[in-house]
Amino acid sequence: MEMELEKKIVVEGEGGDEDEEVELPGFRFHPTDEELVAFYLRRKVEKKPLRIELIKQIDIYKYDPWDLPKVSTGKDKEWYFFCMRGRKYKNSVRPNRVTGSGFWKATGIDRPIYSARDSNKCIGLKKSLVYYRGSAGKGTKTDWMMHEFRLPANDAQSDSTQEAALRSM
Fold first, then answer.
1. Domain with 95 in it
2. How far apart are CA 103 and CA 137, in angstroms?
3. Predicted TM-score (pTM) of this structure
4. Were 112 and a residue from 89, 121, 122, 147 both cysteine, which residue would form a disulfide, CB within 3.0 to 4.6 Å?
5. Would you say the C-alpha torsion 145, 149, 152, 157 has a positive or negative sign?
6. Residue 141 has pLDDT above 90, yes or no
7. Could you tell me the CATH number of the domain that includes residue 164?
8. CA–CA dist 169, 118 (Å, integer)
9. DSSP one-letter string for the chain
10. Are strands 3-4 and 56-57 parallel, antiparallel or unpaired?
11. What are φ and ψ of residue 87, in 5° steps?
12. Does residue 21 sit within a domain?
C-alpha cells in the first residue's frame, strides 16, 4: 500500500528575496521494513534529523487509533510515527500500551528483520499489535492493527534503542 503525502518544501522565490512552499507532486512514501529500521529508526536514535519530516514523533498512546489520521502527515490508510516506548512500571521493561478508550495488545512474537546485504544480520524487530476497546480482560477486539519496529537489544546503542520505536498503522 502506498502512502500519499502532502509534502511541501521551501524554495527560493524568483527574485531571490522571498521563499515559497511547493508541493511535491507524485511523492509516495512506501518504505520496506528494512528501510524503516536501518535508515529512519536508526537515524532517529542517532539524532540525525532529515530536512523533511516524513515521520512525526508523537505519543500515540495519547490518541485512540481513529484519531491518529488527524495528526499524521499522510492521507492514506497507513501512517508512520516515532514514539518513545513507555513503561508500565517504573523498574520494568514491560511496555505500557493503554490509550483513552482501550489498549494495544501484542499478537505473536517479535519477527526479526534482516539486512539485504547480510542475511545473517538481524537489524531490527517487528511486532504486530491489535487494538482492543475497553479494559484488559474485558476488551473487545477491533480491526485496528499496528506494527512496532525497534532496533535489537544487542545494538551498540541499546539503552536509547529500547526507548525509541517506530509505529506503522
1. 31-168
2. 11
3. 0.74
4. 122
5. negative
6. yes
7. 2.170.150.80
8. 28
9. --EEB--EEEEE-TTSS-EEEEE-TT-EE---HHHIIIIIIHHHHTT---SS--SEE--GGGS-GGGHHHHSSBSSS--EEEEE--BSSTT--PBP-B-SSEEEEEEEEEEEEE-SS-TT-EEEEEEEEEEEESSTTT-EEEEEEEEEEE--TTSTTHHHHTTEEEEE-
10. unpaired
11. -110, 140
12. no
Q: What are phi and psi of 125, to 5 degrees?
A: -130, 145
Does residue 12 lie in a domain region?
Answer: no
Q: What confidence tens digit (pLDDT) does each residue in 5-62 have? A: 344 444 454 555 555 655 666 777 888 999 999 999 999 999 898 888 888 888 888 9
Contacts of 5 (CB under 8 A, 6+ apart): 24, 27, 28, 29, 54, 73, 74, 75
Number of domains making up the chain: 1
